[in-house]
Amino acid sequence: MAISTGLLSVADLTSLEIQHLIESAAFLKRGRKANALLKGKTIALLFEKPSLRTRASFEVAMWQLGGHAIYLSPAEVGLGKRESISDVARTLSRFVNGIVARTFAHETVELLAKYGTVPVINGLSDYEHPCQALGDLLTIVEKKGDLKGLRLAYVGDGNNVARSLVLAAAAVGMDFSIASPPGYELDKSALRRAKKLASQSGAKIAMMSEPRHAVDNADVLYTDVWTSMGQEAESRIRRRAFTSYQVDAALLSRAREGALFMHPLPAHHGEEIAKGLLDHPQSVVFDQAENRLHIQKAILVRALGGKPV
Ligand code: CP
Ligand code: NVA
User: Fold this and answer.
1) Percent of the chain residues past pLDDT 70, beyond the cut
2) Are 117 and 18 part of one and the same domain?
3) pTM, to two decimals
4) Mutation probe of ligand 1 site: the residue of 47, 49, 54 with most atoms within 8 A of C-beta
5) Is there a domain that residue 308 lies in?
6) Which site in 28, 86, 106, 166 is 20 to 30 Å from 138, CA atoms measured?
């Protein structure tokens, strides 16, 4: 899938396309001021789940690029309930130049892309969060200068964020080690795809259950919530399973000197992270949040056919 037809998974991109997106995002970030690369273009933000960063950053991105975004809330659209996914995709395609969708089932973004005639960008599904992982690569490049040869340690759930990150790391040649409790590991299919990419880039991918082992020699320590949106009914059982996976300053101190602490947010202080960790001098979480804006501008310009940057 070329980015001109959308972005459902990090695996839709070659490592060269990822590099180009990071460079374009850095260029757009340096420019800062509004420009007209997407003048007259409109996107729909079709969301089944709540959001702060994704919604705000896509709306601001479109405005700063001279275009416009309309937000469509779950209650209004009733995706797959009030109206079928295919009818929503075909209707919206007559109004807008692109759709950013945040869905429960990953199949929903796939169906939107199948039936829509405009690019569909995955703004988080249960299976992946590509815009997050790509923005995170931009943050790592800014702080560490390069990606190849670095090591990212992920401690926690093998969830949507972890899947997009492992694919991104494998594509660009960054080692990735993940420590998860039994039953919450990365799924076999994501692991297989990541290992295939890693065999071309030289990245090493490792799965384990002991957080300390994952963190040794890491340049980045990353975690995410134990209970993702849509899994709220499991939160008690998950809290129990993940008790010894909390990231704190002591775990961070086992990583390389100057290692970055990263989290996509929202964070649950006192659960996956110790209270105060977001304010640790090695934490870059708000740079991460800001970089969602810049990477998404680069994605939008590519996907919606604006002037290349
Ligand atoms: N990180 C992220 O996607 O945040 P939101 O859920 O607030 O959009
Ligand atoms: N894994 C989290 C990420 C939120 C940005 C979720 O899906 O809720």
Assistant:
1) 97
2) yes
3) 0.97
4) 54
5) no
6) 106
